[in-house]
């Protein structure tokens, strides 16, 4: 079992890992000849299944395994991976490989950095005088200042060379047997009612977070004089207990984010968004299937002003979990949301162009809807 | 003593020095979670202070020094936010005056800090202190011939790589490089293994060091937190950081100085002795010229091979007088190691120092684990010395063991190597 690759775009990889790390501590990483799949399945909250083509983040991608299609399945802790990648940001190069140390499997990230040797590397120039002089910063006695000049000259001519320093960050991992991941399948979902390109995620996130915060504070006020149960509900931090945001979209380019509590009802509306055309080849039963597709029927309802109550597909998401999902916005990809009325919303985040390294890489978020 | 109180000590600080004093206090806090570290910040009377006056005649015990113990937290809160960078909410200070009033008969022993601020405001803090004899850790430089010196800026860059949760730092020299590894000892099983912190390995070229001399494959292990705190503080002062050590289970010292602050940290090390115990001749990775080689190279029980002529000791070690100081302290533990594998008889006509003398007294303690205790110096006899707290701490031994002592624990003495044999002859001929 071998895996080794140069990291092509450390910043993309770091941002990608950071996004995953908001949802869970551990990722299932499946590497094979054609794909790098990162999957996070937290106990509750949103799942993310992502497929990256190796050249999105890697160069000189080498993989060898006894399993079919050279597959290697690993369990990777995301925080150490993220930390390791972040520390590689200042380096001139980095590579990742699967290795073992004292019987413990590791992903070893080797970072090449440069040290600029500011002073002389010639040991004969290091004298007691220059030692004190370095330490004092400013030599005052004439004797030491002449020594200092000597060593500065040496540094100018002989030093100031860049040298490569290797830093290795070892990330503990677990190697998974193919049998143990056999039963893991991507969630299946019926054909969506509405699909829409989301607006700028940074903007969507800041508004969503503000709504969540409002719900939390108004919730606390409500429960401050009330029962213990309510208070536990909000402070427990579990994703089922937090405030729910109502997210709706129609097939006329409208997206609505709403919050309703006992004391208030607020909503934000985006219009003029894109509803991408479905590719008949991707729809079951082709053209006929497209004609009967739920989204085709939804097109007949509602309008582009988003003022009516018709034609909306609505889901209820947990505010904090939704905020964590939206942190994927840092990757800057195009995001399509597929709404299944009252059931789930699926986010497809496409990494392409410069950030994606040319390949088709996609992160898929499965966000369940809560009942009202 | 005309006044009711006597001024034992009075000094004034510039705003910059006040900030640096605070940095030092903070560093003390960050250190020593494992309680195996000793830190000392010596402030130079001439260059650190605007004004410094120790009133020797009025100190309670007479004598030319004043020692006390004071809560670090209390001092920190006084000096907090006193840096003149304008960011703090506290008004910028112009000067800081500190007075120590000592009166043995009264409870009014006080350390008074006056912060003279801008706009004519003065803040006065009165702290109580405890008058105690301060214990100082002993670190014997002559028994720590290995070491390195590097720009604190370079190290500062690399400590960033160490994970926040790792506990230990292993230091080993290998193949022209020095390898710093941060790790956590506890090995977890199963799923828990994923909670193991990152292990970071940093490989630096010895050329990045101003000076480097370390035995090949010797592991020295200290606490990552201590190392990080020390490097961070060294960086605030700029300049070079020096490490001196011999091998694992013996103290290591970091030192650096600038702006009239002399900082010394003595840390106890752990680590495995695999490298040091190898029966081969120890190999050194060194940027030092041959003239800088210390006279004794390695630690027991491995010795330099007989064919290796020990070079003369470095000149800077000559001020030490291990022979005289060794007899000053009673032996804490006989540091005698009985070799089990060394059988060859040294050539009596050889000019070289023999590897191991078979007539050495046996180690009746039966304690092969040569872990050494850190010594303490309560007397602090050289109080007027530039660096008053450290004295030669050569492990003591009965006179008959002295020569062997020197060989075994790398007591790089001020003696020329030729004297070693002459010293040996009368003892064993």
TrEMBL record, chain A:
One of its GO terms (cellular component) is checkpoint clamp complex. Residues 276-288 have a biased composition (Acidic residues). Residues 119-159, 276-309 are annotated as: Disordered. Residues 137-149 have a biased composition (Polar residues). InterPro entries: HUS1, HUS1/Mec3. The keyword Mitochondrion does not apply. Gene3D superfamilies: 3.70.10.10. It holds the Pfam family Hus1. It comes from the Eukaryota. It is found in: Nucleus. One of its GO terms (biological process) is mitotic DNA replication checkpoint signaling. The keyword Nucleus applies. Keywords: Nucleus. Belongs to the HUS1 family. This is Checkpoint protein. It comes from Salinomyces thailandicus. The lineage of its organism: Eukaryota, Fungi, Dikarya, Ascomycota, Pezizomycotina.
TrEMBL record, chain B:
Coiled coil: none annotated. It comes from Salinomyces thailandicus. The keyword Metal-binding does not apply. Gene3D superfamilies: 3.70.10.10. One of its GO terms (cellular component) is checkpoint clamp complex. Residues 400-413 have a biased composition (Low complexity). GO terms for biological process: cellular response to ionizing radiation; DNA repair; DNA replication checkpoint signaling; mitotic intra-S DNA damage checkpoint signaling. Belongs to the rad9 family. Residues 284-429 are annotated as: Disordered. Transmembrane segments: none annotated. Keywords: DNA damage. This is DNA repair protein rad9. Acts in DNA repair and mutagenesis. Involved in promoting resistance to ionizing radiation and UV light, as well as regulating cell cycle progression after irradiation. Residues 284-299, 321-330, 419-429 have a biased composition (Polar residues). It comes from the Eukaryota.
């Amino acid at each position: 079992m071998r895996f080794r690759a140069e990291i092509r775009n450390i910043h993309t990889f770091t941002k990608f890992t950071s996004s995953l790390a908001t949802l869970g501590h551990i990722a299932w990483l499946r590497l094979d000849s054609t794909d790098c799949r990162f999957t996070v399945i937290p106990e509750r909250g949103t799942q993310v299944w992502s497929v990256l083509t190796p050249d999105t983040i890697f160069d000189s991608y080498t993989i060898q395994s006894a399993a079919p299609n050279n597959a290697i399945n690993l369990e990777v802790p995301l925080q150490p991976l993220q930390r390791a990648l972040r520390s590689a940001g200042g380096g001139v190069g980095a590579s990742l490989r699967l290795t073992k140390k004292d019987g413990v499997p590791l992903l070893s990230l080797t970072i090449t950095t440069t040290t600029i040797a500011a002073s002389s590397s010639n040991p004969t120039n290091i004298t007691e005088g220059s030692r004190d002089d370095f330490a004092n910063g400013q030599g005052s006695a004439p004797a030491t200042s002449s020594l200092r000049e000597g060593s500065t000259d040496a540094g100018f001519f002989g030093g100031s060379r860049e040298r490569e320093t290797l830093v290795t960050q070892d990330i503990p991992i677990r190697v998974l047997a193919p049998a143990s991941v056999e039963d893991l399948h991507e969630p299946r979902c019926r054909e969506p009612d509405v699909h829409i390109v989301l607006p700028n995620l940074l903007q969507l996130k800041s508004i969503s977070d503000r709504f969540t915060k409002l719900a939390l504070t108004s919730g606390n006020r409500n429960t401050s004089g009330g029962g213990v149960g309510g208070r536990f509900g909000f402070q427990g931090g579990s994703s089922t207990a937090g405030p729910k945001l109502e997210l709706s979209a129609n097939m006329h380019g409208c997206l609505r984010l709403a919050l309703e509590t006992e004391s208030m009802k607020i909503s934000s509306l985006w219009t003029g968004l894109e509803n991408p055309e479905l590719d008949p080849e991707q729809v079951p039963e082709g053209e006929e299937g497209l004609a009967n597709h739920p989204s085709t029927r939804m097109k007949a309802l509602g309008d582009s002003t988003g003022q009516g109550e018709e034609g909306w597909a609505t889901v209820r998401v947990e505010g904090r979990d939704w905020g964590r999902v939206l942190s994927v916005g840092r990757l800057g990809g195009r995001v399509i949301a597929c709404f299944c009325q009252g059931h789930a919303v699926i986010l497809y985040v496409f990494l392409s162009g410069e950030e994606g390294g040319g390949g088709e890489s996609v992160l898929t978020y499965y966000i369940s809807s809560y009942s009202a | 003593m005309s006044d009711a109180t006597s001024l034992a000590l009075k000094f004034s600080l510039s705003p910059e020095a006040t900030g640096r004093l605070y940095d030092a206090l903070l560093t003390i806090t960050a250190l020593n979670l494992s309680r195996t570290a000793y830190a000392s910040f010596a402030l130079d009377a001439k260059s650190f202070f605007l004004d410094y006056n120790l009133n020797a005649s009025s100190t309670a015990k007479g004598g030319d020094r004043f020692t006390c113990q004071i809560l670090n937290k209390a001092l920190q809160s006084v000096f907090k936010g006193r840096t003149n960078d304008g960011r703090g909410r506290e008004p910028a200070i112009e000067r800081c005056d500190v007075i120590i009033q000592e009166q043995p008969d009264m409870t009014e022993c006080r350390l008074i800090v006056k912060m003279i601020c801008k706009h004519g405001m003065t803040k006065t803090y009165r702290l109580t202190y405890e008058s105690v004899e301060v214990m100082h850790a002993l670190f014997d430089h002559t028994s720590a011939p290995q070491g390195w010196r590097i720009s604190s800026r370079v190290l500062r860059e690399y400590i960033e790589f160490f994970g926040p949760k790792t506990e230990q730092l292993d230091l080993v020299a290998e193949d022209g490089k020095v390898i710093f590894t941060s790790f956590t000892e506890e090995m977890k099983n199963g799923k828990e293994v994923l909670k193991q912190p990152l292990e970071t390995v940093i490989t630096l070229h010895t050329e990045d060091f101003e000076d480097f001399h370390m035995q090949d494959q010797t592991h020295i292990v200290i606490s990552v937190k201590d190392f990080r705190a020390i490097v961070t503080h060294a960086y605030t002062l700029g300049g070079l950081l020096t490490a001196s050590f011999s091998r694992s289970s013996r103290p290591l010292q970091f030192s650096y100085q600038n702006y009239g602050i002399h900082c010394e940290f003595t840390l106890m090390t752990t680590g495995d002795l695999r490298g040091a115990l190898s029966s081969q001749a120890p190999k050194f990775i060194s940027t030092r010229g041959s003239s800088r080689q210390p006279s004794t190279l390695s630690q027991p029980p491995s010795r330099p091979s007989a064919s290796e002529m020990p070079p003369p000791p470095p000149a800077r070690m000559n001020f030490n007088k291990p022979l005289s100081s060794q007899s000053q302290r009673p032996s804490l533990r006989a540091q005698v190691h009985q070799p089990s594998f060394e059988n060859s008889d040294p050539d009596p006509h050889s000019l070289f120092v023999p590897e191991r003398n078979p007539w050495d007294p046996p180690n009746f303690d039966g304690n092969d684990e040569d872990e050494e205790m850190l010594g303490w110096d309560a007397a602090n006899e050289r109080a007027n010395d530039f660096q008053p707290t450290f004295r030669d701490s050569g492990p003591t031994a009965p006179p008959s063991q002295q020569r062997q002592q020197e060989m075994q624990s790398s007591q790089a003495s001020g003696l020329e190597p030729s004297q070693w044999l002459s010293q040996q002859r009368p003892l064993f001929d």
